[in-house]
Each structure stands twice: as structure tokens, then as C-alpha cells.
Amino acid sequence: MSQTLLIELLTEELPPKALNNLGNHFAAAIAEGLEKAQLIDGETKFTAYASPRRLAVAVPNVKAVQADQHIVKKGPALTANEKAIEGFARSNGVEVGSLKVIHDGKQEIYAHEFTQSGQTLAALLGDIVQAAVKKLPIPKVMRWGSSTHTFVRPVHGLIALHGAEVVPINVLGLDSANKTLGHRFLSQGEIVFAQADDYATQLAEQGKVIAQFTERKATIQAELDKQAGSLNATVAADESLLDEVTALVEYPVVLQASFEEHFLSVPQECLILTMQQNQKYFPLLDKNGKLMNQFLLVSNLKTDDPSHIIHGNERVLRARLSDAAFFYTQDQKATLASRLPKLANVVYHNKIGSQAERVERLQKIAAHIAGSLNADTALAERAAKLAKADLVTEMVGEFPELQGVMGKYYAQLDGEQPEIAQAIEQHYQPRFAGDTLPESAIATAVALADKLETLVGIWGIGLIPTGDKDPYALRRSALGVLRMLMNYPLSINDLLQFVAAQFPANLLAEKTVGEVADFMQARLAVLLQNDYPQDVVAAVLAQRPDRLDDLLAKLQAVQSFKQLPEASALAAANKRVQNLLKKAESELGEVRADLLAQDEEQALFTAVQDLQPRVQTAIAARDFQAALKALAAIKPQVDAFFDGVMVMVDDAAVKQNRLNLLNLLANLMNGVADISALSE
Question: I want to staple 80 with a disulfide (CB 3.0 to 4.6 A). Which of 76, 459, 468, 602 is the partner?
Fold first, then answer.
């Protein structure tokens, strides 16, 4: 008879940032183990539970005993020697005469066939749970008491309940039972389960624990939205904060609190970060996106009078905000420009030098890029000069996440031009996939300078990303550069050459520029394949585009071309052309009309000459769709050529001329992209 199986590990407080992941892994591993042991009747389903003090899983339709299994143990071939056959029989405890002969797909072999009685859940469950525990992604384990067992946190209880029956197992030195503990303060004492299916309901009612992570998270989110709505506010928090708070509480209660209005004179990013990072509070923004002096907190304790909880949290936050206000006031006593000498004492990398030396390079690179964009080079140079000055402020020293943001505020207070303040803040963008790009040409120039200097410098001293190791986030820098370059007419190779030239002689490896360019092309393929078919991306990137401002237009054009009825045949013909051109024994040159002996090659030559101006004009106008669409007209002449003309003939001059014609055709067809890369 199949019933629900409940497994719970009762622990001390689990690490909040890992809780949901641990809960999901534990539940999935238990279910997988039961499935492999053929103990689940029907489809494998499970419910994962994870709260600060427990990991649990409920698996329905678990059988008490495995079904009997028909086992076939394969032995030696019929042609094997007598000793091998006897040895196989002996190892299975049977006589040679009782062995069967079967065909294994290749030859006839001896086999021992028998029916094995199904094992009980009790016999198998201990190993399944132990294996699930060992599989958990725990970076650091600990021991407790005199136990030799290890886990992420001390474990004090184990439930193994199949329907109404306790399954007797021992895991982590604990014997299984049907009881647990609830909330540290709100629970009615020890909770005993009569049925595995009662777990979530009984734990919530008696133990004041919402055991399921997703349910607890949804409860918090709904209450946050409700209370924020009553204040005409929105909650300023990302998913990670909500997940962390969900992992800190078992019985969440959302409370409203406030802080003194005078703290709002401090930049709101500082206050928000303080509330979120240090206190796990939920800041509130008004309809204009401005921080309010009310906030929401999630308590793990429900009381008739929560005022003491609210006031206690307000008192703690007041001290934190006072620190932030102090740092902000202190920082204003010196301008960003006056802080620049301190950057000489901040090591960027011991092989590359200080942040001050880096800033000198950034100034030159940013000015160069701004000039290429017809932007104000002096503004770009000034912005790059001040971009890292906030690294030596009190506020950024306390909250490194505010670098750039504080630089903007301090630049505004110093009277710097708005474009400079904006560039200081935005030069770190994009910080991650999907992040916004810098808004202005000046900010883009400084952002490109910052990321390209990192890419070339760090790569050049040999710190190349390998596998999942990328300590200097070069992959992220490359993607940021590529996203920005899609909006500006800049040469990747020219930029890399200029950046490399700003480093001291002989510091960077000789092949740095070429290797970084290859790396960026590879990252470009990864970036584009999220939005375009792989063959379309391959066709466009086969040209190794040096400028990316027309890249998206080319991708869209190739995608449209691929839908034309002629596209498949032209792609195949292009592939054939390129294979023939590889066989050319001498340099390809001009086509000689007097050597075009056959009608088909004359017709193709004429068609190419007629089509060339149209395609070139369309490409020059960046109308790539028109350029590719025009190619469809040449399909009949291409087909006729390959049907009626032999290219690799004995006459060397004729062969060379036909290869020259095919080269002319290839240049025409591949003006936008290498269409031979397109799949059918």
C-alpha cells in the first residue's frame, strides 16, 4: 500500500542565503533516491519544505515494499573456456546446468536469471536519506557536541514517517521519530504527527511555522504590498532581499515603522542600502520614486502589542542612519579633485600599479573615445579623472556598492558640470546582464574606457578567465563593452590597440590585443544567441565584424533572407563555392571575359555585374535586407552554372578564370554575412 513519506531534519538556524537551495536539493535528492529504488507508485512528485530550523520533504505514493524484480546477470560467451563458465556459476551460487543461454545483441552468452524479492522501505530509506545529505551543496560543514557527524548546522531531530508508521532509520546519529519542534517562542511545545499528510497544517497550527519556503515568501510579499499600498507607496527591494528575509523567519509578521525625516537629506541610495543590507528592512518609495521616512520590517514574532518590536528596530536603524549621515557630512569637507593624490596609495593590481596610474590611462582612453564620437573630449577627460575619487571617501569605504553613486553626489556638490557627475555615476554601467547602458556619449566614453582598460590590462598580465573562474569579471566587462558598441560607430580593433598602447612598454603579453579581440567575438556569439538562431549568428559573425553599430540590422536582414524560397539553394551554392575556392592554387584576380567559353558562365558573369551595384548601394545605405533580397534574383544563373560548367578543368587558364568568377560571386553573396553558414 502506497502512502505519503515525510522526512524532516530539525536543525539549528540554517544559513539564510542558502536555505531555499538546500531545501530544494534535499527534497529532490530524497525523491530521486526513492524513484531509483522503485519505491514510488506512479509519477514522482514531492513537496519541499525549508524554514530556518528545518529541511523536509513529503513524497506521496511511496510503497512500503519494492515490487519483486526479475534480475538477469550476464556471464561469459558460449565460446569461453570451461573455468570461466564454472567461475561465473559459482559466483552466483548455482550449478552450470542451471545457467541460461541468451543473446546479448552481439553473441550468445551464459546468464543467471532469477527473481529477487522486493526490499522494504525500512531497509532502503536510511541509505537514501544519508545519500541525500551527502549530495547537499554545503561549502563548509561543522560538528557538534561529541558527534563525529557533520552537517551545515547541528541536527537535533529526525522524522521518517510513512503514513502513520515511523520508519526506523538512523541518520547523522539520530533515530527517526514522528515528532518535531515548532517556533522557538510561539509553539505549543513538542509536536507529534499522527499522519505524514498532517505535516504542514499541524506545524502551522500548533507550531506557528509556515514550513514551505514559497508559501512563506508569498505571504510576506502579499503583506508588504498591502501595507505599502495603504501608504500609496511601493516597496524598494529586490528578489534576493525577499528570499533572505523569508529564510530568516518561520512565522512572518510585517510591521510598519519610521525614522526621523532629517535623515532624508542624506542621498537615498545610502539610506536604502543601509536598511536593506544591514537591517533587512524594506524601504518605501513615494509615487515620485523618492524615499519615504516609513519602512516595513518582517518580524518572526506575533504579539498583541508589537510596539516594543517596532521601537527597538527604529532605535537600531537610527544608529545606522546616524553613521551614514556622519560619513556624508565628513566626505563633503573635501572635494573629489582634492582626493586624487590618495589614489596613489590604492593598489589596483601589483603588476599594473595604483588606481592613480590607472586613472591616468582612463583619462587618455576616455578622451580618445569621446573624440571618435564627436563629443567633448575635455569633459570626458575630467569625468575619467574624477571617476575613481569616491573610492577614498568614508561612505564608499563603508558601502563599496555605492561607488559611482556617491561620486555623482559629491561632484554635484563640488559644482562639476552635470555631464561629469552623470558620467561618474554611470561609468560602471552596465553592471550586469540586462542593466541599463550609460545615457550620454561622455558617460559611454568613460564606461568603455573603464571596461576596456580592465579587459586589456588584466588579460595582458595573464589573468585569463578559465572555466567558472573569472575573478576580475572579464566576461562581464566584455559583454558590457559589446552592448555599448552596438550603439556607436567605433572599431573594436582600433580601441583595443589604443588601450594597449597606454600601458607601460613590455608589461602586456605580445598577443594581448588579438586574444582579447577573439575573446570578445566569442562573448558576442553568446550574447546574440539568446535572441537569434545559432546559424543566423554564425553567418553574421563569420565576417568578424569590427564595428557593431549595424550588427542588429544585419542579423534581422539575414533572418528575413533565410525565409526566402531561394535562400536554402543559395546557401548551399555558397558553401560549394567556398569549397572550390579553397582549391585555388594561385592568387585570385579579375575575371577575363574572353575566357568565358560557355553560355552558363557568361550568363553568371553578366548577372553578377548587373547585381553588384544594387547590392553595394544597399549595403552603403545600411539597407541590408534589400541587399540580401536582391541576391534571390541570381539563383537561376547560379543553378545553371553548377549544372552545366565544370570548374576544375585541365586548362589552367580557364580553371583560374572560373575560380575568379566564383570569387566574384562569393564576394557578392557574402557582402552582408556568410550565408553558407545558414542551415536548411
Answer: 76
What's the rounded mean pLDDT across residues 414-422? Answer: 97
* Cβ contact 421:403 at 8 Å: no
**Each residue's pLDDT tens digit, 489-529:** 999 999 999 999 999 999 999 999 999 999 999 999 999 98
CB atoms within 10 A of CB 447: 26
pLDDT, position 178: 97
Contact call for residues 78 and 42 (beta carbons, < 8 A): no
The 10s digit of each residue's pLDDT in 215-238 is 999 999 999 999 999 999 999 988
Q: Are 269 and 402 in contact (CB under 8 A)?
A: yes
Per-residue pLDDT of 560-615, as tens digits, reads 998 888 888 888 888 888 888 888 777 888 999 888 889 998 999 999 999 999 99
Question: Residue 298 and residue 248: Cα distance in Å, rounded?
Answer: 9
Q: Which of 417, 429, 452, 438 is nearest to 408 (CA)?
A: 417
User: What digits encode the pLDDT tens for the residues 37-89?
Assistant: 999 998 999 999 999 999 999 999 999 998 887 888 899 998 888 899 889 99
Between strands 108-116 and 100-103, the pairing is: antiparallel
Distance between CA 350 and CA 332 in Å, rounded?
A: 31
Residues 6+ apart with CB under 8 A from 368: 498
Find out whether 151 and 11 touch, Cβ atoms under 8 Å: yes
Write the class of the CATH domain 346-386+400-528.
mainly alpha
Does a cis peptide bond (omega within 30 degrees of 0) precede residue 60? no
Among left, alpha and beta (phi > 0; psi -120 to 50; other), residue 42 is left
CATH of 554-677, picked from 2.60.40, 2.40.128, 1.10.730, 1.10.260, is 1.10.730
Burial of 453 (0-12, 13-18, 19+ CB in 10 A): buried
DSSP state of 118: P
Total Cβ atoms within 10 A of residue 275:
26
Instruction: Find out whether 56 and 7 touch, Cβ atoms under 8 Å.
Output: yes
In sequence order, which residues have a C-beta less than 8 Å from that of residue 633 and are 6 or more positions away? 607, 611
pLDDT of residue 680: 65
Output the pTM of the full model: 0.81
**DSSP-derived secondary structure for 124-185:** HHHHHHHHHHHHS--SS-B--TT----BSS-EEEEEEEETTEEP--EETTEE-BSEE---TT
Predicted confidence at residue 22, as pLDDT, reads: 96
Q: Which contiguous run of DSSP H or E holds residue 547?
A: none
In the block, which residue shows the cell 524484480?
69
